[in-house]
């Protein structure tokens, strides 16, 4: 039997995820060595305030506030970045890769904005840059997309990739509470930050959608290329109406291949059939639904956040990178195929539209004619209420986003329309 490989780990950040990882490395190292043949030694840990109380007791001599010293330490073989944010993480990772040290990160913001530059550097240096935990926390998603599905012609990936919003929407759906109360509850339980903007406005999910686009389709998207709408305008009325029509409201990240190999990535509240597998993803759980020509439909499900699940994914990457390093190799990066961004205006969806109208003859015909004028065909229509309460509820067939937006614009100025109410995209299942 070969002597076990020893790998020195340099950890940048010891917060929620870093503490859980440090605990695994400090307390479970024998088990990890038995299972992998690699003995990991935590050599240095960079934090902002070394004297702060932590969830894990890291020996004081390992802690430092000098992150560069961790990267440069010759005893550190693999660098693990769990600080978050773009700088100084980007500079530190660049330095580590220049030193030919493999890097593992869980940093979605970084990978969604400068991932291409860092991956190219890793490739040029012949070392790994792995980021399984950046999307879906503890759920293996990146590796299956990159490796198991490397030859698959994937047409679409649809994800529930933000636990906070899924928790809020689940509580609104199952318990009939309003958005504000559900958000306050999520904050009370630690599922939402005190400033929940990044989650509820869809920015966190947009970063993950960009990463998924790049891994699944070889695109080169950044967060800003992803169209995103959050859930703060979703009302109890939308959820009830959706339920009556057989749908559930979810915040979805949808990434799909367009014509001419363009790649479209978008995040928005979406009505999905109550029978769709993603409809059963409740509370803070995450899932990714993959549609491919040969593999058919696949779903990956689990805990998309939290210290321990995320640390589990980081540890898997550390083991992979260390193994590759010990045999002088590195994993394959997804090729950048150069698929251009498919603008939202040119993508199509079915839509749900509610319109408050005057209750008099001819109204329906004039409203329907506006849809027709813009080539948006109507799949179903329901009328509810009388007089001041009169309302039309439409579900359209799949139509170009641009045409639907023109329809909505014209409806808003139509004399018989008192108000265009809520509008939501409906997931097409007949792609
Ligand atoms: N939390 C999750 O569930 C989760 C899930 C998936 C991915 N992620 C990603 O994992 C990363 C870490 O998240 P987290 O929740 O663990 O963050 P966190 O709790 O805020 O921890 C950040 C850590 O980095 C340290 N740090 C920050 N800036 C530093 C600097 N300039 N120099 C040295 N140390 C610095 C902090 O030091 P102090 O402790 O002294 O303040 C802290 O230990 C992020 O990229 C996040 O997006 C997190």
What does this structure look like?
Helix 1 packs across helix 12 (307-326) and helix 5 runs parallel beside helix 10. The protein has helices at 16-27, 29-36, 67-72, 89-98, 108-125, 142-148, 163-175, 179-188, 197-200, 203-217, 236-244, 307-326, 363-373, 401-412; strands spanning 5-12, 38-46, 63-64, 78-81, 103-105, 129-130, 154-160, 227-228, 247-257, 263-273, 285-292, 296-303, 348-357, 378-384, 391-396, 399-400, 417-426. The strands form two sheets. Strands 7, 8, 9, 10, 11, 12, 13, 14, 15, 16 and 17 form an eleven-stranded mixed sheet that branches. Helices cover 36% and strands 26% of the residues. It has 14 helices and 17 strands. With 431 residues, it is α/β, with parallel strands linked by helices.
Gyration radius (Cα, Å) is: 24 Å
Q: Which band does the percent of strand residues land in?
A: 25-35%
Task: Report the span from N to C terminus.
Answer: 52 Å
Mean pLDDT equals 95
The residue fraction in helices comes out at: 25-40%
Question: What class, by secondary structure content?
Answer: alpha/beta
Q: How is the main sheet built?
A: 11 strands, mixed
- List unreliable stretches of 5+ residues: none
Bound molecules: NADP nicotinamide-adenine-dinucleotide phosphate
What would you call the shape?
A: elongated
By DSSP, the count of extended strands is 17
Number of contiguous helices = 14
């Amino acid at each position: 039997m070969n002597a076990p490989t020893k790998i020195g780990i340099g950890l940048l950040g010891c917060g929620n995820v870093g503490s859980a990882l440090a605990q695994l490395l400090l307390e479970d190292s024998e088990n990890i060595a038995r299972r992998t043949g690699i003995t990991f030694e935590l050599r240095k840990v960079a934090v902002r305030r070394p004297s702060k109380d932590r969830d894990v007791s890291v020996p004081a001599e390992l802690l430092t506030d000098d992150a560069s010293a961790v990267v440069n330490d010759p005893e550190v073989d693999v660098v693990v970045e769990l600080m978050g944010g773009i700088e100084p993480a980007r500079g530190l990772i660049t330095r580590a890769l220049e030193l030919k040290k493999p890097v593992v990160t869980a940093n979605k913001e970084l990978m969604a904005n400068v991932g291409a530059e860092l991956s190219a550097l890793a490739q040029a240096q012949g070392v790994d840059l792995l980021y399984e935990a950046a999307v879906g926390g503890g759920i293996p998603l990146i590796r299956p997309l990159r490796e198991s599905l490397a030859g698959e012609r994937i047409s679409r990936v649809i994800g529930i990739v933000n636990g906070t919003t899924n928790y809020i929407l689940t509580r609104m759906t199952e318990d009939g509470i309003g958005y504000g109360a559900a958000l306050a509850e999520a904050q009370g339980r630690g599922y939402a930050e005190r400033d929940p903007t990044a989650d509820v406005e869809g920015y966190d999910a947009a970063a993950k959608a960009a990463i998924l686009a790049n891994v699944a389709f070889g695109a080169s998207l950044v967060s800003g290329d992803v169209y995103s709408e959050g859930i703060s305008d979703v009302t109890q009325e939308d959820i009830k109406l959706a339920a009556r029509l057989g749908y559930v409201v979810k915040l979805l990240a949808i990434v799909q291949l367009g014509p001419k190999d363009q790649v479209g990535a978008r995040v928005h509240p979406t009505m999905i059939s109550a029978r769709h597998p993603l409809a059963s993803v409740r509370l803070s759980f995450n899932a990714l639904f993959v549609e491919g020509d040969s593999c058919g439909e696949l779903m990956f499900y689990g805990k998309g956040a939290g210290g321990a699940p995320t640390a589990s994914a980081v540890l898997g990457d550390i083991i992979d990178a260390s193994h590759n390093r010990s045999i002088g190799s590195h994993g394959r990066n997804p090729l950048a195929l150069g698929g251009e961004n498919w603008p939202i205006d040119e993508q199509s969806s079915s839509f749900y539209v509610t319109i408050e109208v005057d209750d008099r003859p001819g109204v329906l015909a004039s409203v329907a004619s506006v849809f027709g004028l813009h080539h948006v065909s109507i799949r179903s229509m329901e009328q509810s209420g009388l007089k001041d309460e009169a309302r039309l509820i439409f579900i359209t067939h799949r139509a170009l986003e641009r045409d639907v937006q023109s329809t909505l614009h014209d409806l808003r100025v139509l004399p018989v329309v008192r108000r265009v109410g809520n509008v939501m995209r409906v997931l097409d299942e007949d792609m």
